[in-house]
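About this split. The held-out portion is used to measure sequence recovery: a designer receives only the structure tokens and must propose an amino acid at every position. Recovery is the fraction of positions where the proposal matches the reference. Here is one held-out target exactly as it appears in the evaluation file.
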């Protein structure tokens, strides 16, 4: 969104109504904010009522300029109190979701949908948020069922992507319920192929990932392979259309995932090397190179890339780079170096402040160390 959306001149009209703030969730200086407004999905958009210091609107995921404009208007409506019963319910649900209370949030999103007046403009967002909350709370059966029920009401809109994708991801957890699974897969595919919906490229990429996961869930390797090829081709086309290096680099992580899924990680090397040259202070390109080289079995090149990434990394992201480096040492056969690297990751993870420190992540690292 930083590369494609927030630079759009159409947003200038909102400059006097909103204070724009980007939060680097990896930087420990932002932990007071993150304790109050936890983030578990990237990107997450929050509209915060400054007087109440409360979340007026929460949206997990990216948005196009028209989507963002709609979210801004909805958020302003909540802040200024010009809301209906359905609006009030979706606001409460957003606050619960922000607190990580996904099961409770799902119930209140249901209240909002039930109270919705005819042609309620927030229905799409409520349907997206409900299915996502059900997915987060692992209520997969209800998630799939509600997505299937709500999809006809959002078909042909921006919201159809997340509703069909969330539903299909849930249905893929229990693909034996084949009628629901097939219907949601069809919905996701027709949404992907609808040329009238001007989705952001990363939204289309997300739909590809969900569709591939669905094929894998029913052990259709050939179908999954065809979708992976289609996904990679789409992403390469999107990257070629980029007008700036920053826009092109938006697709690096998606393309790397596609190439690794195709068992062709070497296709990512030139792309990531270019990004490392374009953004010498960014840890992402060398960290991704480390993963690509490790997948290729080029362990020395992977370790060198991780070593370039580590001095630039901070926060929880640094832990994942250390884990990648440890895994590379293990694959190379250097168990002592792998152990030392995991020990370093544990020390660093334990040093993080509240808001960034993750006890499950620390436990996972200690369990990994115990098996070495």
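Reference sequence for scoring:
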């Amino acid at each position: 969104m930083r590369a494609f959306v927030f630079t759009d001149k159409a947003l200038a009209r909102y400059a006097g109504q909103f204070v724009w703030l980007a939060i680097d969730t990896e930087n420990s200086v932002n932990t007071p904010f993150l304790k109050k407004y936890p983030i578990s999905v990237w990107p997450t958009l929050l509209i915060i009522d400054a007087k109440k210091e409360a979340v007026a609107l929460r949206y997990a995921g990216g948005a196009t300029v028209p989507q963002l404009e709609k979210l801004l208007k909805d958020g302003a409506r909540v802040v200024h109190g010009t809301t209906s019963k359905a609006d009030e319910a979706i606001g409460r649900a957003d606050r619960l979701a922000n607190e990580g209370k996904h099961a409770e949030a799902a119930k209140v999103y249901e209240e909002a949908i039930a109270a919705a007046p005819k042609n309620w403009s927030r229905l799409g967002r409520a349907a997206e948020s409900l299915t996502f909350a059900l997915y987060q709370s692992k209520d997969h059966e209800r998630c799939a069922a509600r997505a299937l029920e709500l999809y006809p009401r959002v078909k042909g809109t921006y919201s159809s992507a997340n509703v069909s994708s969330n539903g299909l991801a849930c249905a893929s957890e229990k693909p034996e319920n084949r009628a629901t699974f097939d219907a949601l897969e069809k919905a996701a595919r027709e949404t992907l192929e609808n040329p009238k919906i001007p989705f952001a490229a990363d939204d289309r990429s997300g739909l590809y990932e969900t569709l591939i996961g669905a094929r894998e869930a029913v052990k259709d390797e050939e179908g999954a392979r065809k979708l992976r090829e289609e996904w990679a081709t789409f992403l390469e086309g999107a990257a070629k259309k980029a007008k700036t290096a920053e826009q092109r680099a938006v697709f690096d992580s998606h393309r790397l995932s596609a190439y690794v899924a195709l068992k062709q990680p070497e296709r990512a090397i030139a792309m990531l090397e270019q990004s490392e040259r374009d953004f010498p202070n960014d840890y992402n390109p060398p960290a991704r190179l480390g993963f690509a080289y490790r997948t290729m079995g080029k362990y020395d090149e992977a370790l060198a890339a991780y070593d370039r990434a580590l001095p630039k990394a901070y926060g929880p992201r640094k832990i994942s780079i250390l884990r990648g480096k440890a895994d590379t040492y293990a694959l190379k056969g250097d168990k002592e170096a792998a152990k030392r690297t995991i020990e370093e990751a544990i020390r660093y993870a334990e040093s993080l402040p509240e808001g960034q420190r993750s006890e499950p992540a620390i436990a996972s690292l200690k369990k990994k160390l115990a098996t070495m």
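Annotator remark: The domain at 1-117 is CATH 3.40.30 (Glutaredoxin).
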